[in-house]
Amino acid sequence: MKTNKIVNILSFLSVAVSINAQDPYFNVLDYGAKGDGKTNSTIAINTAIDAAAKNGGGTVFIPAGDFLSFTIRLKNNITLHLDNGAVLIADKETDGIGYDLPDEPKWYSEFQDFGHSYWKNSLIYGDSLHNIAITGNGMIWGKGLYTYDKPDIKGTGNKAIALKNCHNVTIRDISVLHGGHFCILATGVDNLIIDNVRADADRDAFDIDACKNVIISNCIINSPTDDGLCLKSSFALGYTRSTENVTITNCQVYGYDHGSLMDGTFKTEFKDEEPGANHSITGRLKLGTESNGGFKNITVSNCVFERSRGLAIETADGGLIEDLLFDNITMRDVMDTPFFIRLNARMRGPEGTPVGVCRRITISNLNVFDVGGRPKFPGLGAGMVMGIPGHYIEDLTLNNIRIYFRGGGLKDAIDKEVPQNIDMYPDPYRWHSMPAYGIYFRYIKGLRVSNVVLRYLNKDERPAFVLDDVHNANFSNIDAQKSVDAPLFILKNVSDMSIYRVKGVDDTKLIKAAKEEIWIQNL
After folding, report:
1. 513: number of Cβ within 10 Å
2. Confidence class of residue 376 from pLDDT cuts 50, 70 and 90?
3. How many whole angstroms separate alpha carbon 158 and alpha carbon 329?
4. Spatial distance between the Cα atoms of 60 and 24, rounded to a whole number of angstroms
């Protein structure tokens, strides 16, 4: 009996020694890295990754300390783990010595910005990889990254994390401070999970481009001067590829001052459109503008926005947008519009690409307070939903929505000719002001608006709703504030419209209205 016990113990120790001999952890200190904030550790970190890859995979461990680096090249089956207290710092190039050169093929770079066309010039880079992860409670600090493209300066970097044509990717628990042009750029990445990540961005925080099967959850994003969470479907891979099957949930998107999310001060000293500012306050969740491949099967739920621009859904370059659901969203201090849905024809893509399609979108359980905080364009405010002549947004549902607008619009805005801006970059500010304080609809087929409450904080002389070239529309259970001198609805070229239980208006069925105003009755 004792002999068997001894044999079992020896067998256990033998297995333990065997496991230790093939330790899956590769500490970068063992390969020459120094966390002193002075020594560049690029070679050491990449050597540790090479050793792990030769082992068949493993975890490359970055302990507490300040580690300077240029491009870190991920490989298959590698987890890059930043321990609590670890800061991976993007170093500054010197005399052309720095990040990997953006030498990817340039054949398709005219269809998207420079930053979307190259990946190698990044702090962390991977191409055509599988089973990779970036984890831990440490921080990536893009101190030496540029926020704008510097192709004329050899060795510059402009992205914190850039991944291309990868699958089975997890990014979890890390923080990213000042990520350059992008904190995370994922292009053609499938089975992607981004969870519990904090990003305090110089420009875009997360750009998810031409990706499939994506979950983004429990993230806190601060992006005051560019998009916070952005889905795209560009031509960067050299062919069209949709972004599809995406779930975004339990996230927060803000436009606090740069760095003030990470240090916990949450400052709002930066003023929109102040002299010398490169951008206005942005911080939104956006689909587009690059939309060659389109978007489908997207859900966004349980999210919070503050000091931002809310939601933007855009197909400008010929892509197909369909089957989108936004639910349980709250916003405060919205710069221009709570939601901007746009189908137009900028057509930055291969010649002959057809105009896009936008259909089957639902926005529900949206609660918004204080819309219209952009001082340069105080007349925006309204939710904006617009197609272009001959190309209609189809099957749109807005349900259970409450919006408080800042207001202040004047009556002369009602007769304003709303520009088409068919081939322009789609952004609300290009319209300067709108004829409705609430929601402006143009070129829509199939519209359902129900359980909506609209209010303004300052007197506004514009109507709550303007419909222009809208067909098959139903409004029910609407309670919208309005001035005594303004109609509730203005209709232009509207057909097959039903109004039911709209406060102050008799239930109405309109077969066709070339131009009509609907006023609230005296109660």
Report:
1. 18
2. confident
3. 32
4. 8
Whether the Cβ atoms of residue 388 and residue 443 lie closer than 8 Å to each other: yes
- At 257, list the tokens: 């001052």
Token pair of 89 as six digits: 């710092």
How far apart, in whole angstroms, are the C-alpha atoms of residue 369 and residue 406? 8
Q: What is the pLDDT of residues 143-152, one digit of tens each?
A: 999 998 777 7
The pair of three-digit structure tokens given for residue 246, joined into one six-digit string = 């995406």
**Mean pLDDT across the chain:** 91
Vertex 238: Cα angle to 236 and 240 (nearest 5): 85
- Which ranges of 89-209 does DSSP label H, i.e. alpha helix? 114-117
Predicted local distance difference test score (pLDDT) of residue 17:
34
Exposed, middle or buried, 436 (CB in 10 Å: 0-12/13-18/19+)? buried
pLDDT bucket at 273, cuts 50 / 70 / 90: low
CA-wise closest residue to 145 among 188, 200, 89: 89
* Joined tokens for residue 271: 């003023």
Residue 119, C-beta contacts closer than 8 angstroms, at least 6 positions apart:
102, 104, 125, 127, 159, 162, 163, 164, 185, 187
